[in-house]
From TrEMBL:
InterPro entries for the chain: Glutathione-S-Trfase_C-like (IPR010987), Glutathione-S-Trfase_C_sf (IPR036282)
PROSITE patterns found in the cross-reference section: GST_CTER
SUPFAM superfamilies: GST C-terminal domain-like (SSF47616)
One Pfam entry name: GST_C_2
Record GO terms (molecular function): transferase activity
Protein name per UniProt: Glutathione S-transferase
Record carries keyword Transferase: yes
The UniProt record lists the keyword Transferase: yes
Domain GST C-terminal stretches: 1-108
CDD domains, A to Z: GST_C_family
Keywords: Transferase
């Protein structure tokens, strides 16, 4: 989502993100990925989802990262209520704000690439 790459590769990887979110939806046990407690599975996936929640709508035009993914939406809400997870959200969002302030998406050519309507960017 946030590195320099060829437009076709970026579009392929954005499509892959949608696919992987669907995979996570299919295996999410609830309320956390592996069941009733936060595990390393949640810890591994969570920081990347913080990026997705910010970037996919803002940069790639997704209406809702969790559309059609009710178990992941519930998982996200549950993690937002956890104090440690809330701290991570704040830290990652702070870093992303710095990128936005420096207009990283224009600097890397991402905004220009997303204008190419021959590719699908939002899922």
């Amino acid at each position: 989502m946030y590195r320099a790459m060829d437009v076709s590769e970026r579009a392929r990887q954005i499509k892959q993100i949608a696919f992987q979110l669907d995979v996570l939806e299919s295996i999410c046990a609830g309320p956390y990925l592996a069941g009733d407690q936060i595990t390393t599975a949640d810890s591994a996936v969570f920081p990347t989802v913080v990026f997705m929640v910010q970037m996919l709508p803002d940069v790639f035009g997704w209406a809702d990262v969790f559309a059609g993914r009710p178990k992941l939406a519930a998982w996200w809400r549950a993690l937002q209520d956890d104090p440690a997870a809330a701290r991570v959200i704040g830290e990652v969002q702070g870093g992303l704000k710095g990128w936005v302030d420096r207009d990283r998406w224009t600097e890397l050519g991402i905004r220009e690439q997303v204008k190419d309507t021959s590719y699908q960017w939002a899922y």
